[in-house]
Amino acid sequence: MTSNFQRDVGRDVVSIETGKLAQKANGSVVVSNGDNVLLVTATMANPREGIDFFPLTIDVEERHYARGKIPGSFFRREGRPSTFSILIARLTDRPIRPLFPKGFRNEVQIIITPLSLDMETPYDTLAVTAASAALSVSDIPFDGPISCTRIGYLDGKYIINPSYEELETSQLDLVVAGSKSGVVMMEAGASEVGEDIVLEAIEQAQEANFQLIELQEELASSVGKPKTDDYERRGYDPELETKVSDALGNRVLEALRLEGSASDGALSTLKAELNDTFGEDYDARTIGGAFETALDESFRERIIKEGSRPDGRGVKEIRALSAEVALLPRTHGTGLFSRGETQVLGVCTLGSSGDAQKIDTLSPEESKRFLLHYNFPPYSVGEARRVGSPGRREIGHGALAERALTSVLPDEDEFPYTIRLVGECLSSNGSTSMATVCACTLALMDAGVPIKAPIAGISVGLVTGDNGEYVTLTDIQGLEDHVGDMDFKVAGSREGITAIQLDIKVNSISYDIIRDALEQAKEGRLQILDVIHDAIEDVREDLSPYAPRMETIHIPVDKIGAVIGPGGKTIRGIVEATKATVDIQDDGSVIIGSSDGEASQLAIQMIRDLTRSVEVGEIYTGKVVKTMPFGAFVEILPGRDGMVHISELADYHVPAVEDEVNMGDEINVIVIAIDGDRIRLSRKALLGDEDDTEVAERVVAQARSGGGDRGPRRDGGGDRGPRRDGGDDRDRRGGGRSGYRSSGGGRSGGGGRGFDR
Asked: DSSP characters for 172-229?
């Protein structure tokens, strides 16, 4: 039986339907918001042998039919998950994972399939809510429901679930997942907004979340299945935890008071002792789980009661910081950032607009000119394992760092480059994603990218007690990340926040915790920004000599075809002749790139010549491409020929065209008439002592009056004798005739004869 429940949320109506599709799954819902329709299923299987973690899998199955499009791949079929779908899967996973029972090891798979998309409103937050709804109606143990809402901030107003168009100008893109008890997860990108704006946005998002949580509760109470308790808890034994606690006493706490490797060694010894003591009665995973519980309790006691962290720092103290730039000779920009044992090398590479990434996903985005890739090699944590393609963690961390820097990048009109940043994690002991933000900021400044402001990132942790007390920790490292309750990453400038990512291990956190964490993060990032400033005070004025130089010119839209040529022949010719990159946009913008300035200028000249209009009075140095008994055809612009009648070749009688000019000769000519596509040229008019400007003015005046007679010969009729070399024109026009003349024929102070700039 099909059941449908609806609720108004802001400007939207959200409906949840169950009982019609995918009935074999443990839980299945169809969630709709306008024309966005998602099918989400939740399925549970028995645990695999030997597994010591909770195997939750979130898959987003992109179907291009949802947007009425055929995939662009060779096979015309969806392939490997896109970055866009992986980020939605991670967004769904992070708030849901903490809400399953401790020791639960059954395999759970959630599949999100977009069936219809309007391409006007993002569907990622709807996917999170739908996943919670599928779990809520299923028999899978789940401490939900939760909901997820996006908040924009535009013109001083908060917008619930803004459209893609609204997000383009919004100062804030905040995603909040929450339960009735508090916030569960957050993500944000922002344009240097203040902490007060973020806090208010979180409250607005939670109000919307409450409405969808109530909708799910109504759904579950009406048609939901009873939650099963028929599963085995693995790696968790309350009785053994008591025994381990008694056996260890205060020794875990004492081990935590030691410094560095001594503490790690003492903890390893204690764990080995437990395996020897209880190994006959319990497996290693259960013993390890009991030890983790003891470690967790001792860790919390030391933080909350003593105010001391495992490495001896205060709760707001940041590890030792260092920053460097210009480390590598051939890269366009580099930055090395270290925070304690965490070290990241940032590398910036600049390319043309043609290097932008083409995108074929269920996002309206079709290309990206800014890319940030995060690499996490095994040696960064002292391991030896197979090196493969980037996983979901690498993709997620790279996306976070990319979001942190996006808002301070220059506009494409100002800086027409494709920008790629790579964060190489060389050593990791906590928060490499925020270290990547810092290293990549250094690389951008070293590369000469005119960013609006330097950006730094810091992570804030959380330790909670049994009686509601809590402590927030600035700059968490390995053990604090492993045992603690929160990883709250915040990036921003001195003026405000540019990115947020919150993950927790408890059911929820309060507004007070969020407020304290934001304040500590601000203090920490200001300190880091001082270190960045000491390494490089400002963006470099000059680009690397190995970086391409990009120039943008504009041509009429109706001339784009002339530059491209049939089958791309013309533009390929320009690229081959100049070795420059040429990228043409639909609006007529042409971006030319080359590390060779002369090559770039030559490419610009060729494009200008292809697109400019020929007018009467213009003077050119052209090449003779054909001779006939009645005259010579001269190429004055690429692909544009005009004819010099034999009577216009010289200011004396010319018996035969070949007596004066031959194919391949370069001669100076002026346009004297245009009849449709036919261009009439004169060489004779330029052979006197008259200034070029005077000649051009006279020719234009004659054309306007309709007269064809160009007056007496300017030498008074004297015979100059034969001129048969075809190229010994009087070179008195400043700079010679090596290129095409500028339109208008003026001297511009005797400068070169290039194109209009």
From this structure: EEEEEEE-SSSEEEEEEEEEEE-HHHHHHHHHHHHHHHHHHHHHHHHHHHHHPPPPP-
Q: Show the tokens assigned to 613.
A: 């209009």
Q: What percent of the chain has pLDDT over 90?
A: 60
- Residue 110, helix vs strand vs coil: strand
Q: Which of 168, 633, 755, 129 has its CA nearest to residue 411?
A: 168
Domain with CATH 3.30.1370.10 in the chain: 549-611
Cβ neighbour number for residue 707 with a 10 Å cutoff: 10
Q: Edge to edge, what strands does the sheet with 589-594 contain? A: 549-554, 589-594, 581-584
CATH number of this structure's domain 615-757: 2.40.50.140
For residue 709, pLDDT over 70 is answered with no
Condensed to tens digits (0 to 9), the pLDDT of residues 608-646 reads: 888 878 888 889 889 999 999 999 999 988 778 899 999
* Rounded Cα gap, residues 499 and 476, in angstroms: 18
What CA–CA distances, in Å, run from 241 to 295, 506, 631, 726?
Answer: 11, 20, 104, 102
For domain 549-611, the CATH class is alpha beta
d(CA 78, CA 121): 22
Q: Quick check: helix, strand or coil at residue 552? A: strand
Domain ranges in the chain with CATH number 1.10.10:
238-306
Q: Between the CA atoms of 615, 616, 617 and 621, what dihedral angle is there, to the nearest 10 degrees? A: 60
Nearest to 132 by CA among 188, 64, 184: 184
- pLDDT exceeds cutoff 80 at 755: no
User: Which of 157, 160, 131, 161 minimizes the C-alpha distance to 144?
Assistant: 131
- In the chain, where does the domain assigned CATH 3.30.230.70 lie? 3-162+194-223, 351-535
Whose CA is closest to 610, among 587, 633, 588? 588
